[in-house]
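note to self — DONT lose this again. spent like an hour looking for the file last time. sequence + predicted structure for the chain T wanted, 215 res
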Amino acid sequence: MISPDRFRKIRHMLLHRQPDLTVVMDNVNKAHNLSAIIRSCDTVGIGELHAVSYRKSIYTEQDAAAGASKWTTLHLYHEMATVYKKLSDQNMQILVASSSAGCMDFRNIDYTMPTALVVGAEWDGISEAALHGADQTIAIPMFGMVESLNVSVATALILFEAQRQRSAKGMYDSLQMEPGLFHQTLFELAYPRLSRELRQEGTPYPRLDEEGRIC
């Protein structure tokens, strides 16, 4: 049985999730960067993120990095068009982080809108497929000699600007998840083994009280 304190922490996390904010990793290929991005996503309330991989070896790294957090879900794809179609169906603005000329300052974007942030690989940068489907390219202003930041650092900077804007608008003060999905996810995180058994049996999840006890 789950402890009341742990149950409250899980519930608090889900109450602050932002289902209309996500990240797409475009062929990001280093496991430590994948893990760092996943942690940043969890911190700002992102529960689901996406990764596109064109190389089998990188796909394996992404799959391994998915275990960096049991609190987020990493969806893996082999092509950008598939994830872009999914995001477009959810009416998300697609923002591609780039260092090319003509990009908008990342602080001048409205992140309170449904938003998907696309970040590129360390070796190859943003792909043409990612750029082609973007609603806007954004950049972090740079005044030194280096041309770009580490992908996980850049992602964190942009996500915390999104968090700042959403906090100012009160988007962390009320439940953003669909209530049915909230209660389903809460039960599955509180009772992972039991939830698997109930799904296999086709049995609905029981209700939980405020302490996480099964009613």
